């Protein structure tokens, strides 16, 4: 690994130029490539370290799931597989070589029902859901838990982003391949005989378990020479780094989802199922919904969100967080940087007020307009006040929920339709709801970062500045960072709701906008909770 050669202090306080930024971030260059066989063994080792417990599979095999828990889990699983064929197709569409395309295209054909599996697997799963009284309408309407949303949209992001990343999450990280590496069938839903077990345990018909028989027979629909293909892709250092990072992140997200599913089937999952609209409240569900009705509904949704008892920033402001816990928060915060994704947000908008406003937001946060790059200010704060270099900041592994939030943001902003991209970032609550939410308002849809009123004007010295100074840190740059956002963020949110009607014009667009807005918020529902637990442990507080 090349060492960082240019530190901030070597710039004598001035903003680095473009070429100097390349050296400032020289640590991002990949390490030297390993011999291919050695690298593949490294990937197998990563898989072996990925522990998946057998509780979910055993509960399904032996019928140890109450009906209401089974129905919720069925809806979660459907969310995960709903766009599986389309995501696999996106991976194939980005394939750079004919040989690789020919070797991998059967994966797509199995998932669309035109090769070996003669009915689309999603349709087979609908039969399984129906056997438990869950209709397709219920499946489509369901809002999944944060762990399912993060794994689902991260996988799609990888599949649409590049062939190599898509290959990892579609093939290399598929259950059948994981099973072959760990050589233990018990945790996996593609294990031999699972369809027959489920059939007997729940007294189902052959037709009802046809999905599981296909999933079992075709090893989670991936039967290709995966490791030979991985060897073809691991030709240089950059490719190896991409495969390595994607696999680590995918396994972490997949494992987080599986743990949530285990809790769901046991009935111990702590996050309530979101039912929207709530019982007794009706909103226009069809494409006939007007813009005004849409804004009213989303305002009510924001007001109905449960308020967390504690937040990570709240722990810091309370004075209970240790210095190490504060540094954990400081490192986590930079991994929420979404500036590059904002460029994707306006890349599919041709003209108009929305293009102007979002491109201005990107210019401001990236350092091309009004101020220097915002997150570079935060990186300077980390280095100068805490002694945390940029290399340390980005080598640090944040909670998986932070990683997942980043990929969900990228999925919506870079790869989805313009109306979904606009819905997923910078809006916050609708104006009427924002006034009633108070200090919580600017935290909604922003990863919980601003949920303690950090972006609201404060009389006198800001509470965050005081909290950091109590820990012996020079808070000058952190204070400057949040002052900039207090000036910019509320304006961007208010402006955003003004240009929404320009982008979201039809009834179908409004329905997609609404779904994306709600799911983006829900996907971040446990992000702050995971960081808070880390901080409490470092502070010697009960979790």
Describe the structure.
- 63% of the residues lie in helices and 0% in strands.
- The chain is an all-alpha fold and 543 residues long.
- The protein has 2 domains: 233 residues, Up-down Bundle (Heme Oxygenase, Chain A); 248 residues, Heme Oxygenase, Chain A, CATH 1.20.910.
- The radius of gyration is 24 Å and the shape is globular.
- The two termini are 37 Å apart.
What is the compact description of this entry?
The protein is mostly helical and 543 residues long.
The CATH superfamily title of the largest domain: Heme oxygenase-like
C-alpha Rg (nearest Å): 24 Å
The top level CATH class name of the largest domain:
Mainly Alpha
Largest beta-sheet details: none
Identify low-pLDDT runs.
Answer: 1-12, 446-450
Q: Give the rounded overall mean pLDDT.
A: 91
């Amino acid at each position: 690994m090349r060492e960082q050669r240019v530190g901030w202090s070597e710039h004598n306080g001035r903003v680095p130029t473009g070429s100097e930024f390349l050296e400032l971030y020289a640590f991002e260059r990949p390490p030297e490539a390993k011999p291919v066989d050695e690298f593949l063994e490294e990937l197998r080792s990563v898989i072996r370290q990925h522990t998946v417990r057998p509780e979910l599979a055993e509960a399904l095999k032996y019928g140890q799931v109450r009906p209401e828990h089974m129905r919720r889990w069925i809806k979660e699983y459907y969310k995960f597989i709903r766009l599986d064929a389309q995501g696999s197709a996106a991976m194939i569409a980005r394939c750079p070589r004919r040989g690789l395309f020919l070797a991998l295209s059967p994966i797509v054909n199995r998932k669309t029902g035109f090769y070996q599996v003669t009915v689309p697997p999603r349709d087979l799963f609908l039969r399984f859901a129906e056997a438990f009284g869950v209709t397709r309408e219920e499946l489509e309407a369901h809002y999944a838990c944060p762990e399912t949303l993060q794994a689902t949209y991260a996988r799609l992001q990888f599949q649409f982003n590049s062939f190599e990343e898509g290959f990892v999450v579609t093939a290399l990280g598929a259950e059948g391949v994981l099973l072959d590496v760990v050589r233990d069938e018990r945790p996996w839903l593609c294990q031999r005989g699972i369809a027959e077990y489920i059939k007997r345990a729940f007294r189902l018909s052959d037709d009802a378990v046809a999905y599981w028989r296909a999933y079992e027979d075709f090893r989670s629909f991936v039967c290709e020479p995966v490791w030979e293909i991985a060897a073809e892709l691991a030709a240089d250092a950059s490719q190896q780094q991409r495969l390595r990072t994607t696999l680590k992140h995918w396994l972490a997200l997949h494992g987080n989802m599986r743990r949530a599913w285990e809790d769901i089937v046991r009935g111990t999952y702590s996050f309530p199922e979101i039912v929207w609209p709530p019982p007794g409240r009706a909103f226009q569900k069809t494409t006939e919904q007007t813009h005004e009705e849409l804004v009213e509904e989303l305002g009510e949704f924001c007001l109905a969100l449960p308020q967390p008892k504690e937040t990570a920033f709240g722990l810091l402001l309370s004075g209970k967080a240790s210095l190490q816990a504060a540094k954990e928060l400081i490192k986590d915060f930079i991994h929420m940087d979404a500036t590059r994704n904002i460029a994707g947000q306006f890349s599919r908008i041709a003209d108009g007020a929305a293009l102007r406003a979002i491109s201005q937001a990107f210019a401001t946060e990236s350092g091309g307009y009004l101020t220097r790059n915002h997150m570079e200010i935060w990186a300077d704060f980390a280095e100068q006040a805490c002694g945390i270099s940029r290399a340390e900041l980005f080598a640090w592994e944040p909670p998986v929920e932070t990683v997942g939030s980043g990929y969900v943001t990228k999925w919506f902003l870079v790869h989805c339709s313009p109306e979904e991209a606009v819905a997923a970032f910078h809006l916050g609550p609708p104006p009427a709801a924002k006034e009633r939410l108070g200090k919580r308002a600017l935290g909604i849809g922003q990863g919980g970062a601003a949920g303690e009123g950090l972006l609201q004007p404060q009389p006198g010295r800001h509470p965050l500045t005081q909290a950091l100074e109590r820990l012996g840190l020079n808070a000058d740059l952190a204070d400057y960072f949040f002052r900039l956002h207090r000036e910019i963020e509320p304006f961007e949110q208010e402006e955003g709701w003004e240009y929404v009607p320009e982008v979201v014009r039809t009834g179908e667009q409004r329905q997609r906008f609404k779904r994306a807005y709600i799911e983006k918020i829900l996907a971040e529902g446990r992000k702050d909770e995971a960081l808070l637990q880390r901080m409490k442990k470092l502070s010697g507080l009960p979790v």
